[in-house]
Amino acid sequence: MISVKNILTVILGSGLGGALRFISSEYIKQYFSPRFPAGTFIVNLLGCFIIGIVYGMSLKESQNSNEIKLLLATGFCGGFTTFSAFTAENIELIRNGNQTTAFLYIILSVTLGITATFIGSALVK
User: Fold this and answer.
1) Residues 13, 113, 64, CA angle at the centre, nearest 5°?
2) CA nearest 10: which of 77, 84, 57?
3) Mean pLDDT computed over 19-37
4) What is the distance between the alpha carbons of residues 87 and 44, in angstroms, rounded to a whole number?
5) DSSP 46-83
6) 108: how many CB neighbours lie within 10 A of its CB?
7) How far is Cα 17 from Cα 11, in angstroms, rounded to an integer?
8) How many CB atoms lie within 10 A of CB 54?
């Protein structure tokens, strides 16, 4: 249901997630080669793990689960993870002749992302 409270809940989560994504990505980039977008990769995997936990918790506890999902899944994880940066980084890799790296980035992101979500969900069941 769309309400002012729900919108503000999503805004709060998104703002926190987006700020933490920026900080985390910049910090992670310092320790990895610029040839692989490790910042976005690691942040997206962490976001998948977190959303798995939120999803698993919401299955266990239906009371207040909508507010928690709005804050953490829609808001925080929506602001923390980034599909648009993922796609832009892949286009940049391809344009720079790094097709193999782009392919690995895509395959690893999808398979490890789904795995991280599954593990996060399984941990709280």
Assistant:
1) 35
2) 77
3) 94
4) 12
5) HHHHHHHHHHHHHHH--TTHHHHIIIIIIIIIHHH--H
6) 13
7) 10
8) 23
Q: Rounded CA gap, 19 and 6, in Å? A: 20
The identity of residue 75, as a single letter, is: G
How many Å apart are CA 119 and CA 111, to the nearest integer? 12
Spans of all domains in the chain: 4-123
Q: Position of tokens 């920026």?
A: 22
pLDDT at 60: 81
79: Cβ contacts below 8 Å, ≥ 6 apart: 13, 14, 15, 16, 17, 18, 19, 21
Task: Report the alpha-carbon distance of residue 37 to residue 98 in Å, rounded.
Answer: 12
pLDDT tens digits along 52-106: 999 999 888 766 678 889 999 999 999 999 999 999 999 999 999 999 999 999 9
Taking the alpha carbons of 22, 23, 26, 27 in that order, is the dihedral positive or negative?
Answer: negative
